[in-house]
Structures are given as C-alpha cells and as structure tokens.
Amino acid sequence: MKMPGTDSKGADSKRALAHRWLLAPAIIAITLLLLVPLLFTVLLSLGILNVGNSENTAGTGAWQSVLGDGFYWWFLVKTLLVAGVSTLVAALLGYPPAYFLATSRSRWRPLLLLLIVLPFWISYIIRTMSWINVLGASGAINEAAMGLGLIDTPWPLLYNQVSVIVGLVHFILPFMILNIYVALDGLDESLPGAAKSLGASSWQAFCRVTLPLSVPGLAAGSLICFLLAAGSYVTPIILGGPKDAMFANLIYEAMIIQLDWRTGAVLALLLLGALGMVTAIAARFLGLERIGRAAA
Amino acid sequence: MTSRTVLGLATGAIYAFLFLPLAAVILLAFATNQFGGFPIEGVTLQWFADLWANDAILAAVRTSLVLGLATALISTAIGVLAALAMVRHDFPGKAWVAGVLLAPLLVPEVVLAAALLLFLSWMGVPRSFPLLLAGHVIFALPFVILVIQARLTGLDPAYEDAAKSLGASPVQAFFRTTLPLLTPALLAGALFAFTISFDNITGTLFWKPGGTETVPTQIYAMLRDSVSPEVNALGAVMVVGTVLVFLVGLSAMRVSYHERTD
C-alpha cells in the first residue's frame, strides 16, 4: 500500500509519517475483521447483500419480523434483567473485599490482590463447569446436606435461572473487585479521617465520603460486568435449563443451527444496539477512556 | 467483633466463593467415583491416565496450542507496531485511532463472532482454521497493544536517539536499544494473546469447522452429557498448569523489574 507523501526525502517528514506504516497493520486488521463485518451485517440484515441461503429480497422484512415478534423482545428484556441482577449482586459481593484490600496493611495484601487477578487466567469453561460440582445433584452442597440428614432427595440447585446468575457472578466478580479497588486505592486516606475528626462515626464517614468517592470505580466495573454478562453465551447453556437461554444463544441458534443468517444478523445488531445504548449512556457519565481502561 | 473483623470474614467468604468450586474440580479429579460427584469414595490417578489416552482431547490440545501460538505471534507483531505509533508519535486524529484500536473490546464477543462469520462467508472463507485465527487475533489485539503501550510509555526514547547519534541507522537503533528493552513487554503481550486464544469459546463455537475442536469446545462437548471424572481431571491439569505459568510469568516480571531498577 502506498501512502501519500512517503517519497519525501526529509528525515523529519519521514518520521512524521512513520506512524502510518506502524499503524497500518492494526488498523487494516480491525477494519477488515471488525468494522467492515459490522457494516456487512447491517447490509445483510437489510437484504442489500446476501450470503448463504438468506432470502434475497432487499428491504426491512427481516427487521420487521424480529421486531414484531414479542418472543425476541422478551428474550432481550430477560437477558438485560439477568445481566443487571448479576451486576448488582457482583457489586454487593465485590465491595467488601475491594475495600478490605484497599485499606489493608497486611503483608499478605500483594498475594490477595494476585488471587483476584488469577481467575482471569484460569479457563472460563472450567470455572463455569466447576459449579456443577458444587450445585449438582451429587454436588458438594447436596451431598453435604444429605450427609447431615437435612434432606432425603437433592435440592434442584442446578439448571435454573439462579444457577446461571451464580455462574455469571462468579465470572464477572473479579472485574468488579478490581475496578472498585482501583478507585478506593487512589483515594486520599486523610479524607475519611477528616470526616471522623469532625465528629462523623466510621459508618457515616464511609457512607458520606468513601462510598461517593468510589462511585466512578463502581460504575466502570458495573458497566464492564453488565456487558460481559449480557453477551454471555456459554454460561446459560452449561448452568441453565432449556428455559434459561439468553440473547446470545438466540443468535447462535438462528445462525448456526437454523442457518437463517439474515435473522441472525438482525439479532446480533439488536443486541449490539441495546448494549451500545447502555455503553453510550455510561460513557456520558464516565468518559470513554475510562471504560477502555476498565475493560483491560 | 470489630467492624474490621467482619470485613475480613466477608472478604474470606468471597475468596471461598471464587476458589472453592475450583478446589472441588481438583479434588474430584482424584476421586474413584464413576460419575464425578461427591462423596469421594477413594483416590485414583486413573482419570489422568484416561486423559492421556483420549485422542479427541490430545487433538484438541494440539489445535489449541497451534492456534494460541499463531495468535500470539501475529497479534504481538501487529500490536507492537501500533503501540510504537501511539507512544512515540503524535499525529492528528490520535484519539480517534485509539478508539479504533480498542473497538474489539467494546463490541460484545458474540456480535463480533456473528459479524465476522457472516462477512468472511460472503468473502468465500468457510468456517475454518484461518477464520478461527483471524477472529482470535482480533480478540487479542487490543490487550496486546495496551500491555506493550504501558511498557513503552516508561521507556526513554533517549536510548534510541543516543544510538542514532553514535551512527546507528534508525532501524539498527530500534533493534539494538528499544527492542531488547521491550522484550519483557512483548513476552507479556504474547502470553496474554496466547491465553485469550487458548481460553476462547464463544467466538470459537461460531468459527470452528465441524470436526475441529479446541480445548474449551472439547470440554463443552463433553459437558453435554454430564461432568465426567475425565473433565474434572482435564480441569485440574488446566488450573494447576495456569497457576504454574502465572507464577513463572510473575517471577520473570520481577526479575526484569529488578534488572531495570538495579
């Protein structure tokens, strides 16, 4: 690929244009493998371009049949609800350890922090599957309860909506803890102290000073967790029953099982639009850069 | 009980929530139980031997290793160039470019998976290994760029300038000063990319050709029936293996950190 201006002889202008060559592979890769495919998906959903056995009449027919079908709306709402509940639970469960880590002076603190990062490196499918060993009919909880004589037949803990949420929370919790931790760790320690010296109780100082100041971390963590949960495909299949599928499962079902690529395209764009709206609203309050950092 | 004790106990409970299920996987990998459940009836290494004799799993491990290494190689090569541009150069539209480089993080994985499959099918690329590789590179690229960028920011370009003023060509200067200093970050980025590829399942399920399995999709297929002790054994190997790699990577980073500061 020839860039304009690369023929110039001056070393300065060469250096000034070097960034184009350095960026070209990454930008081309992302354009061809992400941006163009997204654009293509829009064109396919409108029937302007066709692939496979998708019906080749241009128009909004595929959109109308999806948007006019309450089934898809119900799935979208349910998916957002499940993601919202999982995020809320993760925030409630994640705050205490984040606060503990940020305020700890223990020499174990570096190790405890490392343990929060460790799950990112451990296989997602193994982490998800591990809950079958805990919640299953012969899992740890049921066997313990039966061993203690509390029950005769196992509780149906697995393959329902709750077990899906447990799996999602287990998956997103480290993201939440880290984001809250970063916000709390950057906090000036003298601020809650100042509140206390002015007569506030520890609890009041926390509620009026520490908690509000940690809201940016809480919000960034919540957004990341929400997006991850709302897009999850594997967790509902492994830990849920047939009724607990989420929106990503619909996309796979339409595209890979039914080979109805045009409907799959509409569904993918619908999910992208819904989550994009959530992100846009959050970005107004947080700034996009912060979200990028939280995601990483 | 002081409030600090309550906080400590709550934190302990969360750590238990995070790690006890994995402990159950490792425990059950050594249990004689045929159907992979509690209570543990006896201790055996049989499931690990079964793993080693399972051709489908070994094939999946090979596929995942090749895919992970190729992903690491390509995304690190592309990523280091982009990171150099972002850290060492100023140009109009930089914030916009930064947004594009992070775009794969902002699009839900399942949407990226669907869009890439649709577009490449239209281009005549079927569900195949090249499609898998392209997808994994896109997933890994933003992480690689961020990791290398973070390290580059702390590197003084004066080294490279000094080499140039001593008569090295810009290319020589880069290869003899910046690149060696950047090696830990390149390895970290590559390790990141490898892990992302090795762990990926959603995109992989969309892109893999029939008959090809990676480690996660193989486990996924095995889970369709129930959790067999063999899956627990594979899980135990992966968890322990990851922790070991994690510790090695950590100590390597420590060594390079000390080299830098000494």
Automatic annotation (TrEMBL), chain B:
<dbReference type="Pfam" id="PF00528">
    <property type="entry name" value="BPD_transp_1"/>
</dbReference>
<dbReference type="InterPro" id="IPR035906">
    <property type="entry name" value="MetI-like_sf"/>
</dbReference>
<dbReference type="InterPro" id="IPR000515">
    <property type="entry name" value="MetI-like"/>
</dbReference>
<feature type="transmembrane region" description="Helical">
    <location>
        <begin position="173"/>
        <end position="198"/>
    </location>
</feature>
<dbReference type="InterPro" id="IPR051789">
    <property type="entry name" value="Bact_Polyamine_Transport"/>
</dbReference>
<feature type="transmembrane region" description="Helical">
    <location>
        <begin position="12"/>
        <end position="36"/>
    </location>
</feature>
<feature type="transmembrane region" description="Helical">
    <location>
        <begin position="129"/>
        <end position="152"/>
    </location>
</feature>
<comment type="similarity">
    <text>Belongs to the binding-protein-dependent transport system permease family. CysTW subfamily.</text>
</comment>
<dbReference type="GO" id="GO:0055085">
    <property type="term" value="P:transmembrane transport"/>
</dbReference>
<feature type="domain" description="ABC transmembrane type-1">
    <location>
        <begin position="61"/>
        <end position="249"/>
    </location>
</feature>
<keyword id="KW-1133">Transmembrane helix</keyword>
<feature type="transmembrane region" description="Helical">
    <location>
        <begin position="56"/>
        <end position="84"/>
    </location>
</feature>
<keyword id="KW-1003">Cell membrane</keyword>
<feature type="transmembrane region" description="Helical">
    <location>
        <begin position="233"/>
        <end position="253"/>
    </location>
</feature>
<keyword id="KW-0472">Membrane</keyword>
<feature type="transmembrane region" description="Helical">
    <location>
        <begin position="96"/>
        <end position="123"/>
    </location>
</feature>
<protein>
    <submittedName>
        <fullName>ABC transporter permease subunit</fullName>
    </submittedName>
</protein>
<keyword id="KW-0812">Transmembrane</keyword>
<dbReference type="GO" id="GO:0005886">
    <property type="term" value="C:plasma membrane"/>
</dbReference>
<keyword id="KW-0813">Transport</keyword>
